[in-house]
Design a protein that fits this description.
Octanoyltransferase; alpha/beta; transferase; BirA Bifunctional Protein, domain 2
């Protein structure tokens, strides 16, 4: 049996709202499709990718931002959104690879926990390919990928009816000062970092896209089919 196919949709530099709208479209599409037990040969879903066009703070199902904090962040010129993913508050912005896999886990033979572990493995492997061999995943509440006490990749997902949404945010050349206005993911005493900071050179989202897609394909054991936004 051939490996399941996953559509790759690269939005380029895009507004966070555009990514969420496309995610909702794919969620409705997958939810309307018959399950794999019905003998369908439909794709497993889509891998939605973008570089955020502007600063956005998001909070998850566990909250993370008070009304006062929200007002302060908006005064800085940032967008603030409440999302349905797991976790607390984090930041998305230019210089970050934002990856939202909208997948039917049944077609990939995965459970939610193994899906999260696979996302972590993708980010760890990408760091290793860039020479950062100390990158590692840590158990909850430290979900994500870390270099010591510095988080380089945040992960927060949602899953309903076996279909995932949201995903990971990998700091490539992100302006890390934006993180100073929150407690990222509610973890006091930890920091954030980026590929550019660790490697002491500019690492763009465009640079990491090809190796990230290769790592995703290998980790999720799927084929990738590219297309533009729809």
């Amino acid at each position: 049996m051939p490996p399941p196919a996953v559509r790759v949709v690269w939005l380029g530099r895009a507004r966070y709202a555009e990514l969420l709208a496309l995610q909702e479209s794919w969620l409705r599409r997958l939810q309307a499709e018959p399950g794999p037990d019905a003998g369908s040969s439909l794709e497993a879903g889509a891998l939605l990718l973008c570089e955020p066009a502007g600063p956005v703070y998001t909070s998850g199902l566990r909250g993370g931002l008070t009304p006062e904090e929200t007002a302060q962040l908006r005064a800085l010129g940032a967008e603030v959104r409440t999302t349905g993913r797991g976790g607390l508050a984090t930041f998305h912005g230019p210089g970050q690879l934002l990856c939202h896999p909208v997948l039917d886990l049944r077609r990939l033979g995965l459970r939610l926990r193994t899906h999260v572990a696979a996302l972590e493995k993708c980010a760890v492997r990408l760091c290793e390919l860039r020479g950062l061999r100390d990158a590692r995943a840590r158990p909850p509440p430290y979900t994500g990928v870390w270099l010591g006490e510095r988080k380089i990749c945040a992960i927060g997902v949602r899953c309903g009816r076996h279909i995932t949404s949201h995903g990971l945010a990998l700091n490539c050349s992100t302006d890390l000062t934006w993180f100073e206005h929150i407690v990222p993911c509610g973890l006091v005493g930890t920091g954030v970092t980026s590929l550019s900071k660790e490697l002491q050179r500019h690492v763009s989202v465009d640079e990491v896209m090809p190796p990230f897609l290769e790592v995703f394909k290998e980790t999720f054991k799927c084929t990738l089919v590219s297309e533009g936004p729809n």
